[in-house]
Write a structure and sequence with these properties.
The structure holds 2 protein chains of 2 kinds.
Chain A lengths: L1 H35 L18 H7 L2 H32 L6 H13 L2 H12 L5 H8 L16 H26 L3 H9 L4 H30 L2 H6 L11 H11 L3 H34 L1
Chain B lengths: L2 H8 L4 H11 L46 E7 L5 H14 L4 E7 L3 H13 L7 E4 L3 H8 L3 E2 L2 H6 L1 H5 L3 H6 L1 E2 L2 E2 L2 E2 L1 E10 H6 L8 H13 L3 E4 L11 H9 L3 H8 L8 H14 L13 H9 L3 E7 L3 H7 L6 E4 L12 E5 L2 E5 L5 H12 L1 H11 L2 E2 L5 H10 L4 H8 L3 E3 L5 H15 L5 H15 L8
Parallel strand pairs in B: 1-2, 1-3, 9-10, 12-15
Antiparallel strand pairs in B: 3-13, 4-13, 5-6, 7-13, 8-10, 8-11, 8-12, 8-14
Helix pairs in contact in B: 2-19, 11-13, 13-21, 16-17, 17-18, 20-21
Classes of the chains: A mainly alpha, B alpha/beta.
């Protein structure tokens, strides 16, 4: 018994510094946000204002902008993640083969990931510019002038336009993770499938994809979490507009906190966002565990 | 820009050119009584031809009432990067001439939003840093003043009435909240129409006097394949509101807007709904470049610079970016937006630019006020606007304008000084109202909502807010 306690104490001593940092920079802010979400506060005074219970959550429930932002966040994730993972996976499969200039292509696909977001947004603002932008000029050039559009200025196309930029920027990241996964697959299994007469598509669909499931799930999880937290890209490109058509939870949080001085409401959004992200992460972990157990059985 | 570089520029102007510039500045001197309500600006004196030899700043950098007893550094957080050099220059001159112990450390945030977040965090933490804070007139000024986070200028102005007289009264009115002045402007600025004189000449067009003239010009230019007006409505949250402010300024309903902003009048009154209808009309008039909400400042400037558009509706503060983008020989002109109502006046949207105030927790409030006085006082304002080509925060003498024109190459500067006296304000004080107006104007431009529906939704927000905790002016 004493020996066990000593072993625990040693473990705790080693993990204590990390726990302290975790508590100070993660748990405390989350707890503080939760506390603030139950109060009224304009953010200028050193202490929060009156306790209002769940009033901030009630305010959000009755705010159509909140629902629009929630829907936009979901659309952003639901559209971006499959695109990012699917395109990344296809590219990874392609770049895992013996191709000329394979290294160059890998580098090129990864360049957007390391590019500054500000630079990316500035480039795409020019690409989407309605009068002289690259996209509309290209459309006019190939006889599709009727499709030319104010991409970021129209509430219908603004969100898809931003999602496209996000996919372009992040697909290289998925590619790298998935490529590493592909390269770690057991070669004997792939060879056995080939000997058994599996064609290229059968190999991808029936052998590679099932083997890659955990990596695909991890990539999807990272993309979902990144998508739910998206702020900078949208804030720089559209500031959530026009008419809230690209407003997501993170941009609404910022607007409520720093433009409208509703720190309580903003904290409530933060709590909802954290809950959403943690729930998705948990769900993903459960699904993965179940599939692993099913595979083992 | 440093003094040295300013002197280098001087050599680039011949005396004949100087005289031409100064004669262009002469109409800026219409002597008028200090502006009517809801206007920024007033009469500027005549610019006298520059005498031989180099002119000097005619004002004096007066000594402070309080000096630092030991080496002290004041911190100053602002949000306009291109103002840093001139602020540094003035602070260094002040240090050299009057207070060797006092230094100014300027932090220029990349934008207003970033600076506001930083300031808010510092104020909530009761931090004595920054000592000097740059605030935007309107909602930001209301936030910091009503929360007791900054100090007012009552004592400073009582001790130095001459300093107070140096500002346009209406500029100070815009910064008066609950009866006290909480910040002072470094500059004033206007929203006007820049135009390509070459294109106008080529198509035999005259500067429009009325809205109908502008529409006719638009039709002519569209017929020639030239975009009439590049309007960067996608630049920030203020730009979608400029047409609205313009109409209200042109119909003298801006005072009514201020009352509605304070919850004293409804936003659904016919005069204010008419402003929204004007926004709608402009969006569908064929005057703007396509998709204005997708057009940013740099895009619009490119349209003007490449001759794709004949006009650019923007701010005085954009002058440097515009100049930098123009090819050599580009003949740039400007005019106030034409009269929107028959027989009405031309609205020039004026406002105070960056305004300065003192953190209530500052450990050196008196020194901070002295530094602000140096930057915005008689000598400072001449240096400030000489370097930036923005309009001063108050009247300056003819000698001062002549001194400024030595280094300011841009002949548009006197044109801007001419426009200041006719300015109408473009500020909304209540954050929720500003947000509702911005979103509402975007909805009108995209055709999602009718003007009436937008103003009804703004009124709904106003009523939900109830009585405001502040009064302005």
């Amino acid at each position: 018994m004493r020996h066990r306690w000593r072993r625990h104490a040693t473990g705790l001593a080693f993990t204590a510094p990390a726990l302290v940092i975790l508590a100070a920079f993660l748990l405390y802010p989350i707890g503080y946000s939760l506390w603030l979400s139950l109060h009224e506060w304009d953010g200028y005074t050193p202490r929060w204002g009156a306790f209002v219970g769940l009033e901030n959550y009630r305010t959000l429930a009755g705010d159509e902008v909140f629902w629009k932002a929630t829907l936009n966040s979901i659309v952003f994730v639901v559209v971006r993640t499959p695109l990012e993972v699917a395109v990344g996976f296809l590219l990874a499969i392609l770049l895992n083969r013996r191709l000329a200039a394979r290294s160059l292509l890998r580098t090129l696909f990864f360049v957007p990931v390391v590019m500054s977001l500000i630079v990316v947004t500035l480039i795409f603002q020019r690409v989407y510019e309605p009068n002289t932008g690259l996209l509309n000029t290209l459309l006019h050039g190939i006889g599709l002038g009727a499709w030319a559009h104010a991409w970021l200025g129209d509430p219908v196309t603004a969100l898809p336009a931003v999602i496209a930029v996000s996919v372009w920027k992040n697909v290289g990241f998925s590619l790298v993770i998935l490529l590493a996964g592909l390269q770690s697959l057991p070669q004997d299994v792939l060879d056995a499938a080939r000997v058994d007469g599996a064609g290229a598509w059968q190999l991808i669909l029936r052998v590679i994809t099932p083997l890659m499931r955990p990596i695909l799930a991890l990539t999807a999880l990272l993309s979902i979490i990144g998508g739910l937290k998206v702020f900078d890209l949208i804030f720089i490109m559209t500031r959530g507009g026009p008419t809230y058509s690209t407003e997501v939870l993170a941009t609404m949080l910022y607007r409520e906190a720093f433009e409208q001085n509703h720190m309580g409401v903003a904290s409530a959004i933060a709590v909802i966002l954290v809950t959403l992200v943690l729930s998705i992460a948990r769900l993903q972990a459960l699904v993965l565990r179940e599939s692993k157990e099913a595979g083992a059985a | 820009m440093t003094k040295a570089s300013g002197q280098r520029q001087t050599r680039g102007i011949s005396r004949r050119r100087m005289l031409q510039l100064l004669s262009a500045a002469a109409p800026a001197v219409l002597l008028r009584p200090r502006g009517a309500a809801a206007q920024i600006g007033g009469a500027q004196p005549t610019a006298k031809p520059a005498p031989a030899g180099e002119l000097k700043n005619p004002a004096e950098l007066t000594g402070p009432k309080v000096k630092a007893s030991s080496p002290t550094t004041l911190s100053f957080w602002q949000y306009v990067g291109f103002h840093v050099d001139v602020q540094k220059f003035i602070a260094e001159e002040y240090k050299r001439r009057h207070d060797p112990n006092l230094s100014l450390e300027i932090t220029a945030y990349p934008g207003l939003n970033e600076q506001r977040v930083g300031v808010k965090s510092a104020l909530a933490a009761q931090s004595p840093t920054p000592d000097i804070i740059a605030v935007e007139p309107g909602a930001y000024a209301v936030d910091v003043s009503t929360s007791g986070s900054v100090l007012d200028f009552t004592k400073v102005f009582a001790e130095d009435p001459e300093y107070k007289r140096g500002f346009w009264p209406n500029a100070l009115e815009l910064l008066t909240i609950n009866g006290k002045i909480w910040s002072v402007p470094a500059v004033t600025n206007t929203v006007i129409v820049y135009y390509n004189r070459g294109i106008f000449k080529q198509h035999g067009l005259e500067v429009p006097e009325t809205l109908d003239d502008l529409k006719k010009i638009g039709a002519t230019l569209n017929g020639k394949g030239v975009i009439p007006v590049a309007y960067p409505a996608g630049q920030d949250r203020n730009f979608p509101l400029f047409p609205y402010y313009t109409y209200l300024g042109g119909t003298r309903a801006d005072k009514l807007m201020r009352e509605a902003d304070l919850g004293l009048k409804p936003w659904t009154s016919p005069e204010l709904v008419a402003g929204a209808e004007f926004v709608d009309m402009m969006a569908r008039s064929g005057l703007y470049a396509k998709g204005p909400l997708g057009v940013k400042e740099q895009d619009a400037i490119q349209l003007l610079a490449t001759g794709k558009s004949a006009m650019f509706w923007g701010g005085q503060w954009m002058r440097r970016s515009i100049r930098a983008a123009l090819p050599p020989g580009f003949d740039l002109g400007l005019f106030p937006f034409p009269a929107v109502a028959a027989g009405g006046h031309k609205p020039v949207l004026s406002s105070v630019g960056i305004t300065l105030t003192v953190n209530a927790r500052s450990k050196h409030p008196d020194l901070a006020f002295e530094m602000i006085k140096a930057i915005t006082g008689a000598w400072g304002k001449i240096e400030y606007t000489r370097n930036l080509g923005l309009s001063p925060n108050g009247p300056i003498s003819a000698e001062a304008i002549a001194y400024q024109m030595q280094s300011l190459k841009d002949p548009l500067y006197p044109e801007f000084l001419k426009l200041q006296p006719t300015g109408t304000t473009r500020v909304i004080f209540t954050p929720s109202i500003e947000e509702a107006m911005t979103q509402g104007m975007q909805a009108i431009i995209t055709g999602q909502k009718t003007p009436k529906a937008v103003m009804e939704s703004v009124e709904a927000v106003s009523q939900k807010l109830g009585a405001r905790k502040f009064r302005t002016g």
